[in-house]
Amino acid sequence: MTSQLVRATCVVMASHPNLENHLRGELKWEFSQGLVDLRHVRSLVSSPRLISLSVRAFSHPALAEAGDTFLDSRTRLADYPQKTMAISLTNYLLLVSALEIVDEYDPNDRSVMKLQVWPFEPRDLNEFAIAVAVALSYTPAELLAESRISLAINELVGKWGFFTDEF
């Protein structure tokens, strides 16, 4: 019987210090083959999105662009009238009693925003980490339903040697 060594891997959050170096180390072989599919990253970095809800739009210094709003500001993706913002779980718990949850709204209603709750402070991430976090915040089903999002993610993460073909 021959023995094989298996390298143990762990799933980290996008707030992992030096996330880019960590991924390059974990995916060294994949990078040696060319561009790296984000599906490999999905197995190494957890999605930051804990909760998603629609709320009456508000302003707060802890809010950070997420989802389509983040992609719109960095790619050619056109955003919806409802901006998508992320906030840490800590700040969400401080604000939740003041939030007005909206169950139904007109597609052109700008007084509503999409709020994602993340386990860490989204504003503390560097450009690479926030790009990975936003890319992973979409579910595979969401990417399949909206090919324009996958195209925008490709445009965003391509400069770091990643791609997604989930469209």
The amount of beta strand, in percent, is 5-15%
Largest sheet: 4 strands, mixed
**Could you tell me how far the N terminus lies from the C terminus, measured between alpha carbons in angstroms?**
43 Å
Q: Count the helices. How many?
A: 8
Mean pLDDT: 93
Across the major sheet, the strand order is 2-5-4-3
Number of domains: 1
Specify the overall morphology.
globular
Secondary structure: number of strands: 6
Q: Order of helices and strands, N to C?
A: HHEHEEHEHEHHHE
Secondary-structure-derived class: alpha/beta
Rg from Cα:
17 Å
Unreliable stretches covering 5 or more consecutive residues = none
Estimated helix fraction: 25-40%
Keywords:
alpha/beta, 8 helices, 37% helix, 4-stranded mixed sheet, 167 residues, two-stranded parallel ribbon, 6 strands
